[in-house]
Amino acid sequence: MEFNRYNTLFLDRDGVINRELPGDYVKTIDEFIFIPGVLDALAELKNHFKYILLVTNQRGVGRGIMTCRKLDEIHDWMMTEIESHGGRIDRIYVCTDTDSVSPGRKPNTGMALQAQADFPEILFSESIMVGNSLSDMKFGRNAGMCTVLVGDKYSEQEKDVSLIDYSFKNLLSFARQI
Prior knowledge:
alpha/beta; 178 residues; 30% helix
């Protein structure tokens, strides 16, 4: 697989970095559990990408289930853990909107466009989106990125192959292919 032509990595959070809580939101640091191998994966991936960016829908904030302050605390803790294990994430982009038509909410491309405004040298044709949902894959496709589905959320029959370029068990297995 030819991943060396890509210089920007976009990552979803829940289901890629940390375990998802089906039907719920990660509201506290205690509920944030790294997926096994993620910290090693991020340490490996930092050597292959100029930018590693997190793009995450966090509807729980918009619904008043948690506050932006609590989300920032979770992200600060997450970043400290990642960095202490030799990895990095250069910036976190969050959409707290509850309306699916919001330009910032995946699969819409608002967070990608914000990242490109912040880092003008980002080319989506040289970017990879790694996520665990079809919404993440649509986001990547809508922005013109290579798409990588991780995890086992979908059966083979449920996967829309027109949206998925590559599929891996988890972020670590993806990192080891680079």
